[in-house]
Amino acid sequence: MKDKTCLDCGEELIGRVDKKFCNDLCRNNYNNKLNKDVNNLVRNINNILRRNRRILAELTPTGKAKVPKEKLMLRGFNFNFYTSIYTTKTGNTYYFCYEYGYLNLEDDYLALVKNERAKE
Q1: In this structure, is residue 47 part of a structural domain?
Q2: For residue 33, is it within any domain?
Q3: Model's pTM, two decimal places?
Q4: Which of 85, 118, 92, 99 is nearest to 56 (CA)?
Q5: Number of compact structural domains in the chain
Q6: Any domain includes 4
Q7: Domain range for 89
Q8: What pLDDT digit, counting tens, does each position of 55-102 carry?
Q9: Which of 106, 104, 41 is CA-nearest to residue 77?
């Protein structure tokens, strides 16, 4: 019978026939290495979305505001990342980062809104 070794550390496995790892540490290590690139991408995107949400929340204390687009840009807002898009019946398109959103207006201004129906 062929000896099986741990997929992470290479130690000989003793026990069940279908065993792949010698302990939980090796199993976690192996899976963390396997998912590292995906986790970094997701972590970076989540950080951008959280920053965008925080900026919108700071600039929208009453639930609605009108601000120059440059104000968001100076705070590090990334317009390429949002969680959803909502188009009204009149054709206006709002870009949302969780419950906070913005609408592009004329003269590089933005209308900021908070979706009060969004669950906390």
Answers
A1: yes
A2: yes
A3: 0.70
A4: 99
A5: 1
A6: no
A7: 24-114
A8: 999 999 999 999 999 999 999 999 999 999 999 999 999 999 999 999
A9: 104
